[in-house]
Every structure is written in structure tokens, then in C-alpha cells.
Amino acid sequence: MSKPLYVLGTGLSHNGSAVLLKDGIVCVGIEKERITRLKHDGGNDTDTIQYCLNAEGISLEDVALVVQTANFEIPDRDRFHGKRVLAGNENPPLVSISHHLAHAYSAAGTCDFDECVVMVIDGCGSPYEQCSDLSKGKLLPENVDAFSKEQLWCEKDSFYYFDGRKLTTLFKDFSPLGSRSENELKLPTTKHSIGGFYAAISHYVFGNMDDVGKLMGLAPYGKDGLIGKEAFELRDGSLLVLEDWQNELKMPSTGYTFFKENFQYYADVAFWAQKQVEKAVCWCFEDRLKRFPSKNVCYSGGVALNAVANAFLLNDEVVSSFYIEPAAGDNGLALGCAYYGWLEVLKKQKVKHNENTCFGKSYSDADIQNALKNTSESWTIKQLEIQDLLVLTAKRLAEGKTIGWFQDQCEFGPRALGHRSILAHPGIKGLGDHINANIKFREDFRPFAPAVLTEFAPTYFRSGRKSPYMILVDHTKPEYAQQLQNVTHVNGTARVQTVDRNWNSLFYQLIEVFHQETGIAVLLNTSFNKKGMPIVETPEQAIALFEESALDVLVLNHTIIEKK
Hints:
The protein is of the alpha/beta class. About 30% of the residues lie in helices and about 20% in strands. The chain has helices at about 30-35, 45-55, 100-110, 145, 195-205, 215-220, 255-260, 265-290, 305-315, 335-345, 365-370, 385-400, 430-440, 455-460, 505-520, 540-550; strands at about 5-10, 15-20, 25-30, 65-70, 95, 115-120, 140, 155-160, 165-175, 230-235, 240, 295-300, 320-325, 380-385, 405, 420-425, 450-455, 470-475, 495-500, 520-525, 555, 560-564.
């Protein structure tokens, strides 16, 4: 038997991660925050690399190649925010690539297309001088080379062609870093990026930069008319952020209390900002696809996490065959680095990805029993055969109990898809509010996702499209609004997860049993964490949150724990 060929990808920006490919297939991957328990943690990659090596049972000597990326610098082999695990060794070889190229390869490597174009849109990529993908394609502005000698100009959107083996740059747009003036609304990334705009508005609304994506959850509570100006302009293919609208934002939030006191105002700001982003994203896609027509389209970068804008592209038929990389933010950079190493450096054939996003290490029943050694005596703990476990869990869900659901390998990316999830009945009145207040400890406007058996999506939702990664919104059909009240947002939308039998088998089976019990083929699904906490990675972390929150039941692999 030939020795496996391993390629390691590592992302060292914020939302750091590492991914290990074995013969062209992802065998393990982890985000740094899951290990350190610090949201959006990045920088030094020793923890993530060591996690991957330990999970696979190999050493660094077994790795053929390491590919890395960061944001504003090319990390040194020996030290980057501390000593690296690569220090002191010449092998394996280390290759560095730029930010948007890593985003693009994360989509190209995992998509199902033989050929496609790839769009990358985010807040800020690599500086012009550090980009490793400039040999081909149109660059904007045309004199960016001269501009970059006077000021830092960075990637804001890029467009590529993938032929099944490698990516070729078609179009890249650069922007200077945003203003740091204290008397204006600051764009913390590039001056003219969609991601920078969205981050700035999030900071204005919430008073912090935590969980920028919750602006999308607030927007449906708003109404039109507060701001009468446009935020963006498309000029000769380059998307620009205008400035006049900033003069209308005179009341930045000072924190959650102030936000709540002025809720409708901030909801109206969020509504306006979301609509601006939808238009801007649409303009970018329309312009690039007009220049470079393609049926198959991939999408990555932080802006690709905007599930509302993504659905807009499909609903308006801007795109048709559309793949959005599930870890589209910077946590997916390591995935792209690994695929770049396999496809571009080692010149290997692409191996078809199985659509799975659960790349973490597995925890055995022995690990779980060890974690339960010092738990409360008031808990009832049972180990059950899988079918009995599913039946009892579904029964508790039907009764209105909340379930912490911990199974096998953790998800890679921002969404819990049925391996590290909090689950509940989608239709029992008040249950969603209870989860936000007493389990998640977060804002009451935050929505939950419906996890639905794929074949039942057209029954409950308007488009019924496949959406396995919770990265597209749909509309709940009016006749199911009450039955799905806990997973339908205030405007009738729902960020749907269609559950796949092939790679998400146990979660699929649970919903199936719940359907038999209740007649509803949908569960409320939200990530197994509380506000400010990364999604739980270990049994110990799951147990700790179960203990401190109002969760009723905890399922750890084959073990079910109930509070008496």
C-alpha cells in the first residue's frame, strides 16, 4: 500500500484555521476559536496545525507540503505571533499565497463543477504587492501599481476561471484602506468594499464589531425611508462606496441598552444597509458575468455569508448553477490553501468532494464517559442503542424540551448543521424566545434556522431549493407559518437548512423520527453555544453549557442526559 500524500493548509488572519488533505480529500480541519475558546481567534497557527496532526495520528514529517495565507503580511516560518510548529525545520516545504486566491480555491476545491467562475467579495484581502495572482486578468484601477507605492491598496473583489485543475485570474478590483478619521463613520477595512461597509454599519448599530452577521437578522424589523441616499456606485466595473449617506448617521450606538431604547431607528438603518448590500452584490455579479459569461458560478469571501443577498441572486436569476462555499469567511482560507497545494503546486487531479463540512476529530464513548465523571447527581444518564436514542430524543422534542445535540466531528464554518446544535420544536409558542433568553443569552431579535428533510423543503418553503449549509433564505409558506413560528423570521423568511441523508445521516434520521412523532419534518436548529462563545468542540464544553443554561436534555453520541 502506498504512503498517503498529505497537504496542510493554514490560515493566519482573524478566524484562523488549519485543514489537512489526505490524497486530495479533507480528512480533518479546525478553526482556531474552537480550540482557544476566543471568538475569531487568529494569528499563530501552532494549535490548529497540531490539532490536525494529532487527529490524523501523524507528525509534520508525514506532510508533503504546507500552504499558508494571512492578510497584510507573509508569515515567517519560525515565528508569527509566537513560535510556530514549523520552526527549525526545512521540511515540509512552505508556500505562501494571497488572500483572495485562497478564498477562491476553497470554493473551486469543494464545488461539484468541472469548470466554473469564482467570485470573491470581502472586506479586505491582501495588499497589491503581496498578491500572487496578478500575471493575468484585468486590474482596477488600471494604475493600481503606481498608487500602491504611495498607499496600501488591497483586494476587495476578485473574479476567476476554474478549468477543473487550476484557477486563472479574470478581474480584480483594489481599494485603499479606509479612513481612520475620528470624526466620520470609519470603514475598518478597504475604503470601497462591501464587507467594509457592512462592518461599519454593524459597528454603528451595535456599538461593537462582534457577530457582524446579526445585522442581517435585525434588518427585517426595519422599514424603508430613513436614509434617502445610495451607499454604492458602479463606475466602469469598479464598485465604489459613496460618502453622502454618512452625513445622515448621527447617532452611533453606545451599547446594548442604548440600542434597545432606539430599536426601531437601528432596525431602519439595518434595513437600508441590507438593501444596499443586495444591490451592490448584484451589480458585481452582473458586471463580471457580462464580461465573462458562465453557467456555473462559485462564491466565497465574507460577504458570501449574507444569506439574504445570496437568495436575491438566485431569485432574480442573476445566477443559476450556484455554489457558495460554506466556510466563506476567513475560516475557509486554510481549506483554499490546502487545495491550492494539491491542485496547483503538486499538480494532482481534483478529487470529488462529498459535500460534507464536518471536519473535526471524533470523540469516543470513552471520552464522553470520562467527561461525565464529575457531573451533577441530579441528572439521569443513559447509554442507548441508536434507534432508541433517536426515539427518546424525538419524543422530548415533541414535548417542547430543548436539546443540546453533540455528535461525532464538529462542523467547519460558522453554521451548526446537526453535529454541534441546539434543537427544539419549531412550532411551540414562546420556545424561540426562551432559547434566546435562557440558553443562548443573546438578543431577542436573533432568528433560528429550520432544519428540514430535503424532500420536504418544497412542502414548507416557497422555492424549496436545496440549501444544505444554511446560507440561503427562503420564505415559509403562509399555511405553515404557525407550525414553523419559531423558525420563521418577522418578515416571513427563513434561513433554511436542507438536511442530506448521505453525509448528515444521523441528523436526518432524527428529523425523520420527529416527523413520525409530530407530522412535522422540520426542527429548530441553532449553534451549540451562547453569545460571545465559539461553538462547543469537546464533550466537556457541551456539558458545561448544559449545566449553566436552561437546556433540558443533552445528547452526547449515544449518551442522553436529562435534568430531573
